[in-house]
Amino acid sequence: MVNKTPQSLSNYVRYDPIFHFFVLPVFVITFIGTVVIAVRHPSLHSVWIVVLALALVILTFKVRLNPLKVQDRVIRLEERLRLAMLLQEPLKSRIGELSESQLIALRFASDREIPVLVEQTLTKQLACPEIKKLVKEWRADEFRV
Fold first, then answer.
1. Using one digit for the tens of pLDDT, what is the confidence trace for 92-135?
2. How would DSSP label each residue in the chain?
3. How far apart are CA 56 and CA 30, in angstroms?
């Protein structure tokens, strides 16, 4: 479904309902329940079930976070290529000074405002949230996982 509301700083965060509101709560509640059972009825079996439930919670986070890390690397590459096309010297030669989080934040800026934002980011060492707040023409990222 196409998002009819334009993306902005206030609504760019994306939730996966199945993951965030079903899978994750089920595993966390299961872990808490197994801890309660292990405390009330301690045994090797109940402790092992706690370990298994903890492993499932950790696995759930790893299954979600590893693809996000790969996605961040792709965004970093895309933004370096985009900046190389949009920036003039001396900013073009300083692209390598931008951190991964700065590049990820800059992806939301329109092509017109990129030169000014990159210069501000490099001179003031702006963090990701600060960069996002400075974006005036939001460039939506609809493909974020």
1. 999 999 999 999 999 999 999 999 999 999 999 999 999 999 99
2. ----SPP-TTT-----HHIIIIIHHHHHHHHHHHHHHHHHS--HHHHHHHHHHHHHHHHHHHHHHHHHHHHHHHHHHHHHHHHHHH--TTTGGGGGGS-HHHHHHHTTB-TTTHHHHHHHHHHHT--HHHHHHH-SSB---TT--
3. 9
Long-range contacts of 61-68 (CB under 8 A, 24+ apart): 64/19, 67/145, 68/145
Per the CB < 8 A criterion, the answer to whether 106 and 131 are in contact is yes
**pLDDT per residue as tens digits for the range 43-99:** 999 999 999 999 999 999 999 999 989 999 999 999 999 999 999 999 999 999 999
Residue 72 and residue 104 in contact, taking contact as beta carbons nearer than 8 Å: yes
pTM of the full predicted structure?
Answer: 0.73
